Amino acid sequence: MGETGSRRGAGRSPSMAQVAERAGVSHQTVSRVLNDASLVKEETRLRVLAAIDELGYRRNFAARLLATNRSRRIGMVTAHLALHGPSMIALGVQEAGYAEGYDVSLVGLPEFSSELLDNAVQRLLDQAVEAVVVAVAHREAAEMVRSLQLSIPVVTVQGVVAGTPLSAGIDQEAGAALAVGHLLDLGHRHVAHVGGPADWIEAEQRRAGWRRAHEDRGLLPGPELEGDWSPASGHRAGLLIADDPDVTAVFAGNDPMALGLLNALHQRGRRVPDDVSVVGFDDVPEAEFYWPALTTVSQDFAELGRRALSLALAALQGDDDAVIDPIAPTLVVRRSTAQRG
Question: Smallest Cα–Cα separation from 104: which of 82, 134, 81, 68?
């Protein structure tokens, strides 16, 4: 029995790997031919198309996409989905896509690396996505995204810099300044800070807002301790802060670290907010049920998703330099902060 008869008998469509093997090229090259033949040498392109024809690999579907370039599908790549911010950003983009009639294909990574990012993008290109949204958490990831050379728009969200084309974000520095300003307006003179990992862009932006709030009032900031976004790191920092009687207020870089901080202060007999006021960042659903209920910074992830999608659609219309303003966060005041006694 010939190969074609064997394939039909198996009842399965040929895979991209089989096309790549038949053409003598890589999986990525086949994907690039299906999505943008101009990125591949003509001789290689013809060899891949011949293999597609021979094997019957999604031939009609691929031809239609190449002709129309319209799949009504957006791709998204993110990492650290166990964290509140990345997971809510992914949800916001998906909801915005659905509202505009687009399917959103999400690829979650355990961490960012050049190889993992490239593989994720190729998987999305295999689905003929029209644009890719990448949630950039830290500097290394941002550099990887900038190195991507795709024929479709790439929109970045999360750790972005205001004014950067095709990037949507929430003003992290303004949110931190809002939180710390609240504490300083309550009469606290030097606010301590439990920050996120040093290589995360948003951690540095929140750190900058903490400093700025003090500078605006001619004050020196309190001590700074580095965490890793986890409650355990907030607890470790909290034990050190609890031993410093000069600290009357703390700004935690996210709510889970604030939770660990609250626990440590309670353990050491420091009352919140009577002795120490605490502010977090993110407004996770559990924040209002912490003890005491946590004052924190709220981010509008649904609006972030809408803005990211609007940038992708603008780029698909030819506006590759579309710029959008960062979203202003809001402060939610609860019972973990009080006037300095």
Answer: 134
Q: Which helix (H) or strand (E) holds 92?
A: helix 84-99
Whole-angstrom distance, CA of residue 110 vs CA of residue 82: 9
Range of the domain at 126: 78-170+301-328
Domain count, the chain: 3
Asked, as a colleague might, if the bond just before 329 is cis with ω within 30 of 0, I would say: no
Those residues with Cβ within 8 angstroms of residue 239's Cβ, 6 or more apart along the chain or in another chain: 264, 267, 268
CB of 256 closer than 8 Å to CB of 250:
no
Token reading at 320: 């590759």
Q: pLDDT per residue over 277-306, tens digit each?
A: 999 999 999 999 999 999 999 999 999 999
- The pLDDT tens digits of the residues spanning 225-252 come to 999 999 999 999 999 999 999 999 999 9
The CA-to-CA distance between both ends of the chain, in Å, stands at 89
Neighbours of 323 (CB within 10 A): 14
Q: Is residue 338 part of a domain?
A: no
Domain closes at, from 31, 50, 68: 68
Buried-exposed string 156-190: b where 16+ CB fall within 10 A, e elsewhere: bbbbbeeeeebbbbbbbbbbbbbbbbbbbebebeb
pTM here is 0.79
* Tokens, residue 152: 């479709």
Q: Which amino acid is at 213?
A: A
Which phi and psi (to 5°) does residue 165 adopt?
Answer: -60, 145
- What count of residues does the chain have? 341
290 and 177 together in one domain: yes
- Going by C-alpha positions, the residue among 84, 83, 88, 120 that lies closest to residue 105 is 120
Please report, for the domain that includes residue 64, its CATH number.
1.10.260.40
Tokens of 321: 């330099």
